[in-house]
Amino acid sequence: MAEADVDVAIIGAGVVGCAMARRFALEGAKVAVIEAGTDILSGASKANSAILHTGFDAPPGSLELGCMQAAYDEYMQIRAAMNLPVLETGAMVAAWTDEEEARLPDLLAQAHGNGVADAEIIGREAVLAREPQIAPGIRAALLVPREYLIDPWSAPLAYATQAKMLGARFLFGAPVTSAERAGGTWRLEAGGETVTARSVVNCAGNQGDRIEALLLGASRFEIRPRKGQFVVFDKASGALLRTILLPVPNDRTKGVVLTRTVFGNLLVGPTAEEQEDRDRPDVTRPELEALVAKAAELVPALAGMPVAAVYAGLRPATEQKDYRVHAVPEMGYYCAGGIRSTGLTAALGIARHVFALWDGAAVPPADPPVPVMPNLAEHLPRDWQAPGHDGIVCHCEMVTGREIRAALDSPLPPGDFGGLRRRTRCAMGRCQGFNCLARIATLSEGRLRAPIVPEDKA
Amino acid sequence: MSAMDLDVAVIGGGPSGLAAATELRRLGVGRVVVLERFGVAGGIPRHCGHPPFGMREFRRVLTGPAYARRLVGTALAAGVEIRTRCTVTAIRPGGVLELATTDGAETLAAKRILLATGNRETTRAAALVPGLRPVGVMNTAALQSFLYEEGRSPFSRPVIVGSEMVAYSAVLSCRRHGIRPAAMVESRGRVQGPRFYALANRMFGVPLVTGAEIVAIEGKTRVTGLRLREASGAERRIDCDGVIFSGRFTPEAALARASGLALDAGTLGPEIDGAFRSSDPCVFVAGNVLHPVETAGYCWAEGRRIAGRIAADLAGEAPAAAPVPLTLGPGLRYAVPQRLVAGEGPVTLNLRAEGAAKGRLVLAEPSGRELAAASVSAAPEASLRLDVPALDVLPGQLVVRLDREG
Ligand SMILES: Cc1cc2nc3c(=O)[nH]c(=O)nc-3n(C[C@H](O)[C@H](O)[C@H](O)COP(=O)(O)OP(=O)(O)OC[C@H]3O[C@@H](n4cnc5c(N)ncnc54)[C@H](O)[C@@H]3O)c2cc1C
Ligand SMILES: Cc1cc2nc3c(=O)[nH]c(=O)nc-3n(C[C@H](O)[C@H](O)[C@H](O)COP(=O)(O)OP(=O)(O)OC[C@H]3O[C@@H](n4cnc5c(N)ncnc54)[C@H](O)[C@@H]3O)c2cc1C
Question: Which DSSP string do the residues of A341-410 spell out, in sequence order?
Answer without folding.
Answer: S-HHHHHHHHHHHHHHH------PPSS-----PPP--TTS--GGGSTT---EEETTTTEEHHHHHHHHTS
